[in-house]
Write a structure and sequence with these properties.
The chain is mainly β. The protein has a single domain, classed as Beta Barrel (Porin), CATH 2.40.160. The strands form two sheets. Strands 1, 2, 5, 6, 7, 8, 9, 10, 11, 12, 13, 14, 15 and 16 form a 14-stranded antiparallel β-sheet that branches. Helix 2 packs antiparallel against helix 3. The longest helix is centred in the first third of the chain and has 16 residues. It is globular and about 50 Å long.
Length: 267
């Protein structure tokens, strides 16, 4: 019997009935002790897929109420409206006696490629995968989460971990799951929050930026292979920064967009 792959295992759910699902987030998917926000979003997304019977999140907005920790959790779901093409539902993840993440999503069935009527943009210009810098964990930095996925940064952006920021608050690179694990639309929810903070490449205080809210729009199911990703920040004001992301599959199709609001690190 084949061994369950890492992302599938990390987002595995047990149906408890009544729209409630049990999860057990494993160790190692964290940023200095706090579970990566994309992994939490993927667990919630998996529960919403199960609750609605719709295979693909189309749009999902999550609010992060407190840091998530590895260990058991419960996701409670509620269908808000069921239509012919889409179902809207909400979900809340509970762990340690507290609410961790709450989300509202619309789900449906996406195609394997996105019909293009107008396109004002393109995948980021990236060197071949082998010429980009693989991010691996260090002594707490980069965090262990980076060993659970495969992220390869554009050489111009990779200096952020060597104390050589590019001066531009952006990160670009290639993404895939480890061990050739296939990625579905729930996996895209992980991808949009899998890269280092854009602020690491700016001449500003650098620390992990806690997510306040994260919205993902999914356009199509990704073709197999490496995903080309870019994330950019334009405004760091009022104690917050935004991160706008794009994810493109190997066919050149835009498969996901994201916007995240995060806190500017203190000190």
């Amino acid at each position: 019997m084949p061994t369950e792959q890492a992302f599938a295992a990390a987002t595995r759910l047990e149906d408890r009935g009544g729209g409630t699902y049990a999860a057990d987030v494993p160790d190692g998917w964290d940023i200095v002790g706090n579970v990566d926000g994309g992994l939490l979003l993927a667990v919630v997304g998996r529960a919403l897929v199960a609750a609605t019977g719709r295979p693909d999140p189309v749009t999902i907005t999550a609010h992060y109420l407190r840091p998530g920790r590895a260990g058991p959790a419960v996701v409670s779901t509620e269908v808000v409206k069921e239509g012919r093409r889409f179902t809207t539902a909400r979900a809340t993840m509970h762990a340690g006696g507290q609410d961790v993440v709450t989300a509202l999503a619309t789900l449906g069935t996406l195609g394997t490629s996105a019909d293009v009527l107008h396109l004002d943009g393109a995948p980021p210009e990236l060197p071949p995968v082998g010429d980009c810098e693989l991010v691996v964990s260090g002594d707490g930095f980069p965090p262990t989460f980076m060993d659970r996925v495969e992220v390869r940064l554009h050489p111009e952006d990779g200096g952020l971990f060597r104390g050589e920021p590019s001066g531009v608050p952006q990160v670009r690179g290639w993404f895939r799951l480890r061990d050739d694990e296939p990625i579905d639309t729930v996996g895209l929810l992980l991808a949009v929050d899998a890269f280092p903070p854009t602020i690491f490449n700016a001449s500003l205080p650098a620390a992990w930026t806690p997510t306040v809210e994260l919205t993902a729009h999914l356009r199509a199911r990704p073709a197999p292979g490496w995903l080309a990703c870019s994330f950019r920040t334009r405004f760091v004001t009022g104690g917050f920064l935004e991160v706008d992301g794009e994810v493109w599959d190997p066919t050149g199709a835009l498969v996901a967009q994201s916007r995240q609001l995060a806190l500017v690190p203190r000190g």
